[in-house]
Amino acid sequence: MLEQQFQQQQNLTQTALNTPTAQKSKRLGYVPLESGVKLNTLEELVNKLAQTKLRRAWFYVPASDSHKIEKSATLGLDVVCFDLEDGVASSQKQQARNNIVEALKNLNFGDTEVFVRINKVGSGLELDDMKTVFSSVRPHGLLIPKVESSQEVQSVTKLLADLENRHHVRAIITGNNKQQDPNKKSASQHFSLMCGIETAKGVCNLNQISQADFRIEGLTFGAEDYAANIGAKRTPEAREVSYARSAVLNHSAAYELQAIDMVTLDFSNARSIEQEAQESAAMGFVGKQGTLYTLLLELTMFVAIHPNQIEPIHKAFTPSTEDRREAQQLFNAFIENQILGQGAFEMKGRMIDMPLALNAAKILQKASQIAAKLSPPSKPAQT
């Protein structure tokens, strides 16, 4: 893991302090940083990154369809979000809630995080959504849709605290949260919240929404609803939503939240999904939304998912071998130069400083998480 790499590189560089290179750096006026501010800051950030959750593909499943729910548990997704909102007809809301309860009790989702998208705050439906979902095994978190103010978030968290105290429900356990410190913000005991930004008012109030509650871990951008709200026509180029999309990303970065990008307009076109996912990753989003609504082919009891959405999204948000190699070199060089007393330094024609070292750390942490997800579970030792 990245924390061990950080410590190992520190130890190696400390050992090298008495080498000719280190002595030369002292003669040139550099002062070794035994406990320098920058290294302390980087170590804190590395430790924080270790708690970041992998959310490359965020897929919605209509909770009214038990077959799709069952299939979603087998797909190896980072996040499955059971939808109680727009994807469920009014007459099917209670059945959808019951389906979620049964799924959380009986299905094995492995390392997949399970979220529930409740109905909009103020609709009169969100209370029943939360009461039913919290009647047994709870999911990892809730997605609050169409958030337009911090008050909406706080009304959910107030109800959430009451339900947790009343029911003493246990959290669903996956490989992502078995070993976490219960005192840390992202531990399994702390229920996760994501806020859906889908309206002009939501974009205008991003500053207050992002700070509404400590449980908020990210923001999702809903391009279709946003475009409809402002009266824009959705296009494949997405220029009509570029301001709001960037605003969601910027506020996520400002408040250390994860930004999850929009669903691709033409979600049946693998090339379009691939291009947009690559653009999302390049912009700084940590993941992208997708849907299982129309990509499931049902023939009696057989359910199959078309891979058009999952594979290109996973690929776009997975660091390449070259990315990992360059990030490791930069990360190691930064630690070495800091301990030797050098601040910014040149590497392959670029000036390297703290922001670039942090970005390298993010790449390495994501690569480590993906490798752990793909690794088969270790077998118990023979006795």
CATH superfamily of the largest domain: Phosphoenolpyruvate-binding domains
CATH second-level architecture of the largest domain: Alpha-Beta Barrel
User: Could you give the order of strands across the largest sheet?
Assistant: 1-2-3-4-5-6-7-8
CA-based gyration radius: 23 Å
Tell me how many strands there are: 12
> Per DSSP, what share of the residues sits in E-state strands of 2 or more residues?
5-15%
Our count of domains comes out at 2
Tally of separate helices: 15
Unreliably modeled segments? 12-37, 173-188, 295-307
Mean pLDDT: 81
Kindly state the percentage of residues in helix: 40-55%
The chain-level structural class is: alpha/beta
Which term fits the overall shape? globular
Characterization of this structure:
There is one protein chain. This protein has 383 residues and is α/β, with parallel strands linked by helices. The chain has two domains: 2-50 and 321-374, no CATH class; 57-316, TIM Barrel (Alpha-Beta Barrel), CATH 3.20.20.60. Helix content is 45%, strand content 14%. It has helices at 2-15, 20-27, 37-49, 66-72, 93-106, 126-133, 150-167, 200-204, 206-210, 223-230, 242-254, 270-283, 310-316, 321-339, 354-374, and strands at residues 57-62, 79-83, 113-117, 141-144, 192-197, 216-221, 258-261, 287-291, 296-299, 302-305, 345-347, 350-352. Helix 1 (2-15) packs across helix 14 and helix 3 (37-49) packs parallel to helix 15. The longest helix has 21 residues, at 354-374. It is globular and about 65 Å long.
What labels would you give this structure?
single chain, TIM Barrel, eight-stranded parallel β-barrel, two-stranded antiparallel sheet, 12 strands, 45% helix
